[in-house]
Write a structure and sequence with these properties.
The protein is α+β, with helices and mostly antiparallel strands. The chain has 2 helices and 5 strands, in the order E-E-H-E-H-E-E. It starts with a strand and ends with a strand.
Length: 121
């Protein structure tokens, strides 16, 4: 089994509904998202899946978040745009869009350099 990881970043704001603290107010982060995917074999060139293909997919998934208020997006109209929910949503999109033979293992989302959440099934 081969594990391939890529990351990207985006800037977005959010607030947490029902939270008792500062995060209930609108605030922004420079988010980082990392996707780790697994492939069981290699192609004729010796590649499990091209880094560029995984990076492009991750960027396509996170691009709608860039310079947006996450609370205003349909992905979060029924739930808070927490790091946990963001990581789970990205994971689900990766799972739907990856080619056959490649599956997501985990997605990690950082709100800051010090705070991150990892989602896996």
């Amino acid at each position: 089994m081969y594990e391939i990881s890529v990351s990207t970043s985006f800037a977005a704001s959010h607030h947490l509904v029902g939270y008792n603290g500062e995060c209930a107010r609108d605030h922004g982060h420079n988010w980082k998202a990392e996707a780790v995917v697994a492939a069981g074999g290699l192609d004729d060139v010796g590649i499990a899946i091209d880094f560029k293909a995984v990076k492009k997919l991750l960027e396509e998934i996170t691009e709608p978040f860039d310079h947006r208020n996450l609370n205003e997006l349909p992905q979060f109209d029924q739930k808070n745009p927490t790091s946990e929910n963001l990581a789970a949503w990205i994971y689900g999109e990766m799972e739907k869009r990856l080619p056959a033979g490649v599956k997501p293992l985990r997605v990690r989302v950082w709100e800051t350099e010090k705070y991150a959440v990892t989602y896996s099934k």
